[in-house]
Amino acid sequence: MALKVNRREFIKITGAGIGGAAVAGGVGKVAYGLIKGDSGDDVITRVPTFCEMCTFQCAGWAYTKNGKPWKIVGNELDEHCYGRLCTKGTSGFGIYNDPDRLKTPLIRTSERGKQVFREATWDEALTYIADKLKEIKETYGPESVAMFSHGSGGSWFKTLLKAYGTTDFVAPSYANCRGPREEAYMNTYGEAIESPERTDMKNSKCIVLIGSHIGENTHSQQVNEFAQALRNGASLIVVDPRFSIAASKAKYWLPIKPGTDLALLLAWINVIIYEELYDKDYVRRYTKGFEELKKAVKDNTPEWAYPITTISPDVIRETAREMAKHKPSTLIHPGRHNVWYGDDTQRVRAGAILNALLGSWGRKGGFFIPESAELPEWPIPAYPKPKRSFKDTEAGQKYQLANLAISAGVCAATVHGVTGEAERAFYEGWFIYGCNVLKSMPQRENTIKALQNLSLVVVIDVLPTEITGWADVVLPDTSYLERYDDIRHSQGRTPQIALRSPVFEPRYNSKPAWWIARELAYKMGLGDYFPWKDVEEYLDFKLKKIGSSLDEMKRLGVKNLERTTPLYIGKNEDYKFPTDSGKIELYSETLKNFGFDPVPVYRRHDEPEGGYYRLLYGRSASHSFARTINNPILSELDPENEVWVNPIVAIEWGLKNGQYVRLENQDGVVSNKVKVRVTERIRPDSVYMVHGFGSTAKNLRRAFGKGADDQELMTRILVDPIMGGQGMHGNFVTFRV
Questions:
Q1: Are 427 and 554 within one domain?
Q2: 287 forms bridges with which residues in the sheet?
Q3: Which of 69, 426, 523, 599 gives a 20 to 30 Å CA spacing to 307?
Q4: What DSSP designation does 640 have?
Q5: Does residue 595 sit within a domain?
Q6: How far apart are CA 646 and CA 26, in angstroms?
Q7: Would you call 296 helix, strand, or coil by DSSP?
Q8: Residue 541 in contact with residue 548, Cβ under 8 Å?
Q9: Rounded to whole angstroms, how far apart are CA atoms 329 and 368?
């Protein structure tokens, strides 16, 4: 949508109608003040999009002035962001403008990992892939291809590969981030948390954050609701070895000893039960296994927890009573990055149990009941049924309670082979979409071993990250500002749909994911699965089926639909939970039947030896993973990470603020140089770094060699026995000065 306006007319037009949404989107006076020059007209365009700078896909408006990038603002209709984008979201033009972007298809001309390629045409690159996939299918079966994916564009390749005959799609975020959370809540409530989180935080009266860095992992919805709750006077309890941004807002900051969070949770449960502070009617009506739980936590008193956690019994009791005082509008936040110490599903489940005792699930200020919009699919043939899947691998058999493929298990199956067929690997080909697997998974040597064992590696990405050097074919994707993607219809309080529409034509010789997948499908004889003539026809078909259209969504960006169910469980409602028992399972028969503790049990974790410190890590408000560190805008704000060191430790080692050191872990791995930040905001037994720095990709000129890579120091992995999550907080480092 393009509007030709002069300075004097701009406010009047935006206020009158293009419409109120333009003002809501943040144009108004700000736009007027930024337009320079007294003569000539400026052409302002406003295009709907949703962000791809992190996983939350906040909807916004991308503005250009005279055809050039101007600004990106949030869409106020969107519950993902409430019209306010984070630092990363407003910097989206940075990836569009990044001169280091992949520019044309590449085919490898040397051994994998050497980053030596030749340029190719699209036809040549896609023909290479199609021929190789045909060969793999004929020799090993289509199930021998797996896909690693992170980002909305991956959906097009999932359609392609399902048509080809495989369903093994891997999100590293499952085993390396949120998986324990999802399985913990599934085994308690029968439902996962999903994204965006179903937390009713804006209505909470008491919020408990356990290692959840709201304000630093700037997911806009969560930050906005967190801020709203605090403005409304909510009580905040933060459990963290580090004085985080959230801790600075807290009524209670509990600087817990790392690795002991489960002990604290069990002590809180003990207090809530034995002081009879729980929601008795809710527990009686909706839960199963209360007496077994009560018996199991009998000895987990605050006095028991004190020498373990270093949190005094008085503080444990006082904070438990604070939670109970505000029930059911108390939220024990489930967190997001939950892979810590190997007991992660049980640790998160203890928090889920605590929420149940306080009656918060399905209650205002706790967890609402989400809905998502139902969109019809374009009619296509039935997909072929795979003869085998990840469930047939060694990891799939071992972690039967995992509901998604485990990234490390796929790596192992690419090397070790099919059960009963040890002479060959389970997987022969990988598609990798928008996912730098050499940075998103620990123990890089295992990933490299798998990559070396493959017959085909295809990488589709915007930037030449570490993983592109291991590809046979590299396909340059567009940035999210240069393409359509499928309609966003994620869960929330209100069923919503959001449109991503191209702001610019694709730069260089890049192509959008939908085009790449569709063209490859036709080369493989699978065109019936992409029967539409272009993506606009595809989107318009789906939108018209629910009473909208592509034209309408270009005007609105976001559209709210009607809910069909209540937002909360009704008073005295006979609500049935999707568990085997139909109730919240405080005592899990499922876990018991699989040989796990039916009620969480604390077990001690290893501690650092003298001169070593536990390595903790997190996010910067400017960066998400490693995908943003080369962004021309964000790299200026936050060019490198630092290692946080307590002043006591700094004195012992003679470290100064701003000094560069190297870190060496317990296995002798040494990091790149990293700047010291001396601060009392970290316990003396730990150090802290922001994740995602220390790039080894030389083609990323702003990111290469900047800061230290925490991941390379994570050589000791604590695997969750329930779902295979890879806990990474079991590593210890010392200093090389």
A1: yes
A2: 584
A3: 599
A4: S
A5: no
A6: 42
A7: helix
A8: no
A9: 11
pTM: 0.93
Can you tell me the distance from the alpha carbon of 179 to that of 716, in angstroms, rounded to the nearest whole number? 19
Range of the domain at 703: 613-736
Full DSSP string of 421-474:
BTTS-S--EEEEES--HHHHSS-HHHHHHHHHT-SEEEEEESS--GGGGG-SEE
pLDDT tens readout for residues 137-162: 999 999 999 999 998 999 999 999 99
Q: Are residues 151 and 184 in the same domain?
A: no
Note the helical H segments in 603-666: 634-637, 647-653
Residue 444, both tokens = 């890089």
Tell the residue number behind the tokens 């007496």, with chain if given.
Answer: 291
Please tell me whether residues 327 and 424 are part of one structural domain: no
Please compute, for residue 18, the number of CA atoms within 13 A of its CA located in the half-sphere on the CB side: 22
Length of the chain: 737
Partnered with residue 371 across adjacent β-strands are: 492
d(CA 333, CA 209): 6
- Domain match, 58 and 159 both: no
Looking at the fold, whether 223 and 166 belong to one and the same domain comes out as no
Determine the Cα–Cα distance for residues 84 and 227; give it in Å rounded to an integer: 12
* 602 found inside a domain: no
Q: Are residues 421 and 467 in the same domain?
A: yes
Q: Token pair for residue 15?
A: 């206020």
CATH code assigned at 40: 2.20.25.90
Q: How far is CA 596 from the centre of its chain?
A: 27
How many folded domains does the chain comprise?
4
307 and 426 housed in the same domain: no
Q: Which helix (H) or strand (E) holds 4?
A: strand 2-5
Contact 671/709 with Cβ under 8 angstroms?
yes
Question: Is position 569 within any domain?
Answer: no
> Which DSSP symbol is given to 321?
H
Q: Specify whether the CB–CB gap between 438 and 468 falls below 8 A.
A: no
Segment 522-544, tens digit of pLDDT: 999 999 999 999 999 999 999 99
Q: CB count, 10 Å around CB of 210?
A: 23
Looking at the predicted structure, is the pLDDT value of residue 566 above 60?
A: yes
Q: Which two tokens stand for residue 424?
A: 């060959």
CATH of the domain at 725: 2.40.40.20
- Give yes or no: residues 197 and 74 share one domain: no
Residues 6 or more apart whose CB falls under 8 angstroms from that of 526 comprise 160, 163, 164
